[in-house]
Amino acid sequence: MRKTFGIVMIVLSAMPAVAQERSWLARETAREYREQARFPESSRALRPGDADPVKEKRTATAQTQAGPEGKGALSVRAESVSFEVGRPIRLYATVEQGIALEVTGEIVGAAGDLVATFAYADDGRGIDRKAGDGTWSARVRMPEGLQPELAASYMVKVRSRLLDGDIRESMGGFLYSNPAAHLTGRYRDELRDGSLVILAEVDVTRAGRFHLAGTLYSMAGEPVGTAQAAAELEPGRQWIELSFYGLMFHDREVAGPYRLGTVAFATTGGMPNALNDLVENAHVTRAWKLEQMTERPFGNQRLLEAAARLEKQ
Amino acid sequence: MRGRRLAAAAVLALALFAVAGQASAQPCLIFVHGKQTNTNTYTSYSSARNYWVNGSNDFIRTATKEFATPYYVIGYNGTRPYWESQSAGEVANEIVNATNGGADAGGRRCATTYANGGTFWVVAHSMGNTVMDYILGNNDASDPNFNYNGPYDQVAARISLVISTGGAHRGSQGADAVCGNNNLFCNFSAIFIQSCDDATYWLRSSDDVQVRTYANAPAKTVWLTGGYEAIFGASACLSGEDDGVVQYASIFACNGSATASYDNSNVCNNSNKQEASGFRNLDACHENHDDERNASDSDVRKAIPGGNWLCNGVPCAPNTTVQSSMTTARYITLLY
Predict the structure, then answer these.
(1) Which value, to the nearest 10 degrees, does the dihedral of the CA atoms of residues A245, A59, B259, B309 take?
(2) Fewer CB atoms < 10 Å away: N or C end of chain A?
(3) Which of A58-72, A153-167, B56-70 has the lowest mean pLDDT?
(4) How far is the CA of A109 from the CAs of A174, A191, A252, A258, B75, in angstroms?
């Protein structure tokens, strides 16, 4: 018996990598759904160390294109994901491992129509922060008459001529938005069924569907959770409610006051959506107590049902 | 002697029980193809079905364990942006049809309807995943584009999970190159990206076209696998490891820049995805973008951070070779 056990152990230790057992994927997915089911889909707690997802979605990222043999990449980015109509478009370009003599750009519409040509500068003037630091900057005004009904996507084609004569090209983009409503800057907060509800006032100029998302922070600066809401609104001043499910405050053991750190508003109902500028540090709530918040898991039935089915597999 | 007979009978009974259990617990696999340069997969079932075939190699045959597992093949217009009615709308409607027991255009249907307790796993390739991200991220009334052009809420309620192979979750630098007229240098595969058509335009890596800008976290978990076999010419234009069309930052739905450079050792783990929840790593394979969907290259598989391979009972270190010869289609059979 001992000998058999020994042989089995030797065989096991010599076994190559194995995939998790066959039912692992179903079980692991079910476990995740049971955890997520503690919150409604419209409001989720963030884990310690999580980034602010509302801010992340509105923060422009760089698009990097390597040169031949992976050398001398050209990175381009816009200042933000979207620019509201009338705002200047601020664009940046950086050549890595190389010295650029000039950087030029073209703004091109989705149909391939050339909208503007421009030159970037690295001279420390205007929006360029520091001369000769390798980050080239441009501020471009979109031509009059290009106001989209909702929003339009534009490509930014960037070309850089280097000191050694090489050319680098890269491609970025931005959204040009014409939102049908704006946040007025007025907020109020109240407690409802053990959850924190923050109401944001919006000024609607054209009827439509609107989406609001926000991230709540502790006063120590830690993101606690997010909430989102959508509503069909008529023209005029209206309120939209963000409901932060109470359990998140117990999970993170954070009492009020809370800071509405980021708010993202958008006009939806058509693609692409028109994105308003991100608002930061919008509101500080009253000093709600932890005991006032619900400790009851939400019990998202859709996720619990999915978990149950997976657990049978 | 009697003891041996009893033991043999017990083993046989256990084996039969296991087989029976496996049959009753099988999910129905729903296949969603990727980007197309024409509308054939939308108008012709054989085109949609053949998307998964290369000669005698058949991804669907392998993934369904020689057709023992029920399956349904979706065909949508892969030349349209991921969010349009002929893409996301069509896919959503077809998934609901599959879960209702309806047949696909080739007459195949799932064995058990959702109402009768069936489970449904979506297997998506390339842009099929961008489409699924849009659907699953707009399934709730609080989402920005709720039920935009189809029953996204029903899809999210009825499917159990998604297995993503070579997913363009963050777009493709190939699309950047094609739309930037940089294609001569990069020489992208004409099968997937021929010109800067509307679908390609919306698969670029800039934020204004990214699906995450227009969707929330997916309502059902998306499990990620993808290839790192380069395609000569094309891969020169892609950052880090790639499958010749889509770079790792996109295949593995990483946060930050869609053009960041990753490999099997450092690709984003499960805490650094494009959304706060809903994306999980499985593994990586030495397949190119074509191989990922037609099971024609049985090759090396590698562990990645947070993936599902075990070495001596613990998660394998990233970049460990975990299989010397296994297609993604065969790998899927290990998951159910």
Answers:
(1) -20
(2) N
(3) A58-72
(4) 10, 46, 45, 42, 29
B215 to chain A: closest CA residue: A57
What's the per-residue H, E or C state across A15-67? CCCEECCCCHHHHHHHHHHHHHCCCCCCEEECCCCCCCHHHHHHCCCCEEECC
Domain final residue, candidates A177, A196, A213: A177
Three-state secondary-structure class, residue B50: helix
Cα–Cα distance, B277 to A43 (Å, whole number) = 12
Residues A287 and A189 in one domain: yes
Q: Kindly determine whether residue A173 and residue B81, on different chains, have CB atoms separated by under 8 Å.
A: no
Q: How far apart, in whole angstroms, are the C-alpha atoms of residue B48 and residue B34?
A: 10
Q: Which positions in chain B touch A15 (Cβ < 8 Å)? A: 312
Residue found under tokens 């489409």:
B131
Range of the structural domain that residue A90 is part of: 72-177
Burial of B61 (0-12, 13-18, 19+ CB in 10 A): middle
Summarize the confidence of residues B83-102 as an average pLDDT.
Answer: 98
Which residues of chain A neighbour B256 with C-beta distances below 8 Å?
61
8 Å CB contact of B216 and A266: no
pLDDT number for residue A20: 82
The hierarchical CATH code for the domain B27-333 is 3.40.50
Contact map slice: B 54-83 vs A, CB within 8 A: 81, 83
Q: Which residues lie across from A175 on neighbouring strands?
A: A82, A153
Name the H helices within B209-266.
Answer: 248-251
Is A143 found in the same domain as A111?
Answer: yes
Does B223 sit within 8 Å of A25, measured CB to CB? yes
pLDDT of residue B2 exceeding 60, the answer is no
